[in-house]
Amino acid sequence: MVRAPEADVGLLAGDRLYAIGLARLVALGDTIAVAELADTIMLSALAQGAGEQALADAVWAAGARAVGWGSSPAHRRAKGLVFARAPQALEAMRTSALRPSASP
Fold first, then answer.
1. What's the rounded Cα separation, in Å, for the pair 89 and 79?
2. CA nearest 34: which of 18, 53, 49, 56?
3. pLDDT of 32-57, one tens digit each?
4. What is the pTM for the complete model shown?
5. Other CB atoms closer than 10 Å to residue 77's CB: what's the count?
């Protein structure tokens, strides 16, 4: 977590860390992981914007697993539920973080 005395500085630092992570994945040629990280950032922002911190946390946990080890059908389903703002999105995302990965 980045802590900064001013919110704007913290936001810029976080954006820089996102950019570094994306650049490293691109350098590895892992376009699937790039897409997963982009989805994680977007879905987390949607959850944060809706005031759903537990969902944002679950998105990050599941997203980290998907970036590192690949997605799964359960994770792809959970992402769709978050995007649709479905009531079962939180549980689906939490569950997808626990499942072993399948093929992308």
1. 8
2. 18
3. 999 999 999 999 999 999 999 999 99
4. 0.80
5. 15
